[in-house]
Amino acid sequence: LYGALTLHGEAFLTAQRLRGLLAALRVFPPSRPLGTTEREMERDKARANAMLRERMERVARRAGEYLATLQVTHRSNPMRGAFLRARSKMRVKLTAEAEEFDDRLNEVRMDVVADVLEALIQTRRLVISHTAR
Asked: Which among 36, 40, 69, 124 is placed 20 to 30 Å from 94, CA to CA?
C-alpha cells in the first residue's frame, strides 16, 4: 500500500487527506535559496521549512501514484476510467466493518471518483510545478 494515506488503502480517505495536504502546501512558504546576509536563525527556519515542504511534496506525489493505481484501465471493463474503493481486502477479517469493506471492494461510487480525480488533478499540478523548477 505504498503511498496510501490510510491503513487499508481506502481511495476516498486517501483522496481526502491528499487534498488537505495539497491545500496546506499552497499556503506553505515556497522553498527559496538563502542569501549569505540572512541571520543564522532565519537560515535555520528556512532550512527546516524547505525540508518539511520537500517531505510534504514527496508524500503527496506517492499518494497520487497510489490513487492512480486504483483506476480501472482494462479496455473491456464497463467501469473503465472509474476508481476502485481500495486495492486489496482488509487484512483484519474479524469485524463486521471488515466484511462490509471487503464485500464492497470493487464498488464504484461517483463521490469517490470525483474526490480521487480532484486530488489527482491537484497532484499533477504539483508534479508539473516541481518539474518546472
From this structure: 69
Integer Cα distance of 24 and 27 in angstroms: 5
Q: pLDDT (tens digit, 9 = 90+) per residue, 2-16?
A: 888 887 788 888 999
Q: How far is CA 5 from the centre of its chain?
A: 7
- Cα 59 from chain centre: 7
List the end-to-end C-alpha distance of the chain, in Å, as a whole number.
Answer: 29
Give the long-range contacts of residues 80-88, CB within 8 A, separation 24 or more: 82/108, 82/113, 83/11, 83/108, 83/112, 83/113, 83/116, 83/117, 84/11, 84/108, 85/10, 85/11, 85/12, 85/109, 85/112, 86/8, 86/9, 86/10, 86/11, 87/1, 87/4, 87/9, 88/1, 88/9
What DSSP character marks residue 46? H
What integer pLDDT is reported at residue 85 of this predicted model?
76
Rounded CA-CA distance 127/22 in Å is 11
Distance CA 12, CA 31 (A): 30
Q: Report residues of the chain scoring pLDDT below 50.
A: none
